[in-house]
Amino acid sequence: MRLNFINKKLKYLSKSIKESFDINEINKIAKDKKFIQRQSSIIAKDFLRFTMSYGSDICTSPLSQLVSKYDMLFSKQLSKQSLDKSFNKHSVEFMKEIFVKFLYSQSNTLTNLECTLRTYFDRVIINDSTSFILTKEFKKKFSGFVGYGSPSSIKIQLQYESLTGLFMNIDIFLCIKNDVEYLKTIKKYKYYKDLKLADLGYFKIDYLKRLNKSGTYFISKIKSNTSLYMKNPNPEKYKVGIIKKSSEHIKIDIINKNLMLLT
Predict the structure, then answer these.
(1) Do 133 and 179 lie in a common domain?
(2) What is the pTM of this model?
(3) Where a domain ends, among 63, 88, 103?
């Protein structure tokens, strides 16, 4: 079952890679990043497909298992030592460069808007997180949610600068921590003409106001069934002058009205 899943994923990735890259371009990137420096048993194209298709457990699987899967997929026998040595700083740089090029090739919007983005923004910073289930041996250090499938899980917080393709921060958190707790790190990287993209769960209204005043821009999103309110400029009052609570705020129609949340 696992191998069938990898094969299906590999076919899809292979098709996407062929549409986005010429084999000579992949080899050039591998050489430029010093991943492939001489004749090697590891082929850049196969290494790329293997690491992209295997999944997150590639970091925890035994070398013997990785070598076996590599052989099954590409009919090429590798020694454990050879595969182990291929996971180095040069392979990281190779994969990062492929990721950036692949990202832009898959997104016409990003490609077409790159010049426009650079005109208005110095940086486009994307914040996001993903969670992974860990084995129960890690539950003391990385506790997870009850019913999550394991008593242990971990959350990876990522800051990525889209215009340069650089990863600004990669941090490890407990899975039970809310994204808003990462705001302490996000606050450190705030500059004029930045554009920040993140789910609303990362932000607090006071921080958004400070961004607005500092000349930093942000884009976020909310669910369509979320209720938003703004202060009523003309609230109803009792005869004694006290504002009626029911009229203190006005509900905003987020579908039919343009919003400026910070006004």
Answers:
(1) yes
(2) 0.56
(3) 103
Measured CA to CA, the distance from residue 239 to residue 261 in angstroms comes to: 31
Same domain, 23 and 74: yes
| Local confidence pLDDT in tens for the 263 residues of the chain | 444 545 566 666 667 777 778 889 999 999 999 998 877 788 898 898 888 777 667 777 888 989 998 888 888 888 899 899 999 999 999 998 988 887 777 666 666 777 888 888 999 999 999 888 888 888 888 887 766 667 888 889 999 988 887 888 888 888 888 888 888 888 776 678 899 898 888 888 888 888 888 888 888 877 767 788 888 999 998 888 888 988 899 888 765 554 444 43
Task: Establish how many alpha carbons lie within 13 A of residue 36's alpha carbon, considering only the half-sphere containing its beta carbon.
Answer: 19
- Residue 75 and residue 8 share a domain: yes
C-alpha span between 138 and 93 (Å, rounded) = 29
| Distance, first Cα to last Cα, the chain | 55
Joined together, the tokens standing for residue 29 give: 């990137």
Let me know whether 131 and 70 are in one domain.
no
Instruction: State the total domains in the chain.
Output: 3
| 78 shares a domain with 169 | no
